[in-house]
Input
Amino acid sequence: MQMRTLGTRGPSVSALGLGCMGMSEFYGPTDDDHSIAVIHHALDSGVNFLDTADMYGPFKNERLVGRALAGRRDRVFLATKFGNVRGESGEFLGISGRPDYVRRACEASLERLGVDHIDLYYQHRVDVEVPIEETVGAMKELVEAGKVRYLGLSEAAPETIRRAQAVHPITALQTEYSLWTRDPEDGILDTVRDLGIGFVAYSPLGRGFLSGRIRSVDDLDPGDFRRRNPRFQGENFRKNLELLARVRAVAEEKGVTPAQIALAWVLAQGDDIVPIPGTTRGEHLDEDLAATAVELAPGDLRRLDEAAPKGVTAGDRYPNMSTVNR
Output
């Protein structure tokens, strides 16, 4: 497994991480035992970077990851998040960056995960009602207490990132990035590179769309949240299939799958970028990992830029975009 460094002063992690969200919610039926087997397969394949959050499940995903880590904690760089507040029944209760909530959320995550420290602790979404300096100040206290090793932000705007960095070094920014979500190229990547912060790309396969396995909304489980996602609906979906066809053509010429070409493209955008695709199937994990061996020549990158230029994807990333890039 190739390794990459998160930022200029951060840890070394596998070039591909594993996003665990879909193992507990959002993409249809789940199977904990099967998911744990996939996590173990990832670890045995050289993946050491696991990503979860307290809101996934809610709370179930951290417990699942904790079970998977039993006896394997020393092999894993573990990331989790706080900030999207949910109730026990799954209801969304808003966003919180209040210092007292940060401390409570961390203690709860440590207990669910069954660990004595979190390697990378993200603020999942920025709370516009609480100055970022107060939130990161509380996160800094967690580092000083030995409960957290590194700090991260997710879906934060450039000015927010700079203000956070002034309080305590930020090791990683996590934001959606792929051939169909190139928004970070509008200032975000420049900002984190200027500050020496690593970039973690979530949904590098466009929520599975770039795998080429979703040809119709009917391919999605009735409970799959993508059925409500603007990019998977109506005319947007049809236009995005045209984008996929162009990406698939480049992949076929290279003798790889659409998923592999999409991941190889993200990896090629810089050694400071670590994609964290998610999957619940071992064969898809193997397919994703093989993308690290795909070499893209300048001509390949040019063709992919032409196939999926910035802004070409039809539809917003979320039904409600008000909580991102703040």
